User: Fold this.
Amino acid sequence: MSESQQIESGAWPIVEPDLASALDAHARPLAALADGSIAAIVLRGTYPAASCQRLIDRLVDEGLLYDPREEMPAALREQVIPEGYYREGRSGLPESDWQRRATSDRPRIDIGTSLGYRGSDKEAFLAHSQQTHELFARVFADGDNPVRLLYDRLGAMAVDRRVVTAHEPDGRRYGPAIIRAHYGGYTYKPHFDSVRLREKRDDYAVHAFAHQFAGVLVLQNSRLGDVTAQCRLHRCFWNDEVDTHLKADTFHAYAAGQGIENVEVCLEPGDLYFFNTRLIHEVPGVPGELPRVVLATFIGYDEDREDVFVWS
Ligand SMILES: O=C(O)CCC(=O)C(=O)O
Ligand SMILES: [Fe+2]
Assistant:
């Protein structure tokens, strides 16, 4: 596929509501995500809403998340991820950003191992990933396992390909998925995600995949009146020209000027969606009482490979 950011014009569909419709519409749904001909695949009601609530309650009970009506526990305060944070290659987090943790009024708490956040130290990343496998085995021991559901649905869409947790050639695995809680209206500005093009992590096996997708299951949303936090996808792949607008915070004006269409993917707790993370996307925060909580993954897909890698 070319480097151009414009995708064929015409309606840009969100394929929904279930696996059957995705496979009906496209013999290879993941190929349709890869070439940008569809905006997203939405599988509604994948995880029962009651299970979402049970999981959130459990995570709060275990001190892995907190109830925003109470004060944030000190142990979590140290783990806050500043809004807008990401690391390129092997660089570290600047001191000024670490200081933003404690004072952030839009804190994000991650449960799991993020390559974007921890990947600059590979040994530490792989050791942390191992701990996440152990943590998830314990948290999801009762069989009501949303990570397995996500892998199963992805496996069905991958048709004859094999879906596995991303691993290095020596077998060491990445984190299988990550739970992210976004408090106080935490916002993802227009951005793209790519271990290859953005983070440039050429020392990781996932760097080899031509395409990167996200698979995200909503566990809880943030609501203020009628408004909930939702992802908006722009029909525009990242390239150098787009990059200047992302960095200058002028992407919205650029998109309007270019007539780039966009769609909002409206999700309820329990809905799972997949999209190509090279598309410019954003999740404007909604400072409701409760945090928006998702189970998130990245997915590596390549036409020439029969394995599909999943990581976080
Ligand atoms: O939470 C979502 O739905 C997507 C978030 C996102 O774009 C990201 O984590 O990079
Ligand atoms: Fe993203």
